Amino acid sequence: MSATTDFVAAQKQNRRNTLLLLAILTALAAAVGYGIGWLLEGEASGALPLVSPAGVAAAGLMAVVSIGWSALSLAVGDKMVLAMSGAKEIGKADAPQLYNVVEEISIASGVPMPKVMVLETDALNAFATGNKVGHGTIAVTRGLIDTLNRDELQGVVAHEMAHLANLDTRYMVVVGVTVGLIALVCDMLLRTMAWGGRGRSSGKKSSGGGILIIVLIVVAIFAPLAAKAVQMAVSRQREYLADATSVQFTRNPNGLISALGKLAEKAAPFPGVSRATQHLFIVNPVQTFTSKTPALLATHPDIEDRIARLRNLGS
Amino acid sequence: MSFWIVLGVLVAIGLWLIAVYNGLVGSRNQGQTAWSQIDVQLKRRHDLIPNLVQVVKDAMGYEQETLTRIVQARNNAVAASGPAQAGPAEAALTQATRGLFALMENYPQLKANDNVKQLQEELTTTENKIAFARQFYNDSVNAYNVRRQSFPAVLAAASLGFGPMDLFNMPETEREVPKVALR
Q: How far does A262 lie from chain B, in Å, by closest CA?
């Protein structure tokens, strides 16, 4: 994906990509469900036919659970994230400049005014949550308010507003749930097979399908990893888009560029964040920036790379 | 027979006029709403400037000329009505405020004054809001004007009382938002 100045097209493309990735993840969940059903039916009947009614039923069940779990997370996930982070809602009197900047970007983006929250920590970071247009929250750390100048703060707030405008927060919840479900079910699958294997060795031998079982084990081991890689790919793409949309709102790439530079130096882990919520932040709050995460499993693109792309937009 | 043809044509023209009218009204209302949002911010700005002048007056007694200029620019801006007049007047006011902010850099006691800081922040955010709201207003006005001048609506627009709407342009402040260094 190259940097583009056509934001509307970029947004459309990103929405399409996310839908595609969601479809892949749901299909993966259904496939694993089929594997389990097929295996259980094989255990019961002693044979392993390729077409298994129990497998189809389990696949359907997985799809339903996946969608149901997503819906539940969308309903309550927002409040859970905010409660976990310990952010406190503020009014204009508490942090006038921050509040003003959020109001400005709300006007620039056409997104209704979100709630503004502050995290009492010296670390430099910010995040947004919100599953519906008009019900967003933007939270920034105290360290960020104290360290950034007005233009930089505007860039960061615009980046978070971009996540709200593009509904990234909603998509990431759905993707996160599906990935969690796949990990859970693959774990179940491996346990089922270990248990089933013992049962078989003491009695009747299955007539065939030994190779298929090995394939299934390989799938059960690699499916969660693949799903995780897909989730991280979505997350990184969203960050690039939010950076570009931020510039669309402020028309000033220098604010965000300079803010990202400061964040790269001073971002540090702080209480209240975990791997479950790390993708929400403007820069990764868990890893330190000296340590290298494998690119495939990083929630955020390299800050240097983000700055380089923003420079491209400015020229 | 010819009576029915004439009636049919009249009804068709009547329906077309209704459609043109409703389209233009919707489009014009959007522009007017956008303008009223800018107007709120302009009024806020006009209210803030006398306060700022009041606060800095004592410390900046020797800068009478600058202070007079900003008060004058503010009064002109208050007197201006409609986007076409307000544009240049507001641009002049922005220039005058910027001049004042620049001079205030020489007065450390002002920079440390919480009241001044607060007024500066409020003025900055108001100017930013005007700039951001202006984009939406101008987009709305462009859409309205294009609709009004397109064939076949152009045949009826003027006689239905739909005149052109003015863009809100602020010369010389096009790209740059005022930079206020508080740190």
A: 16
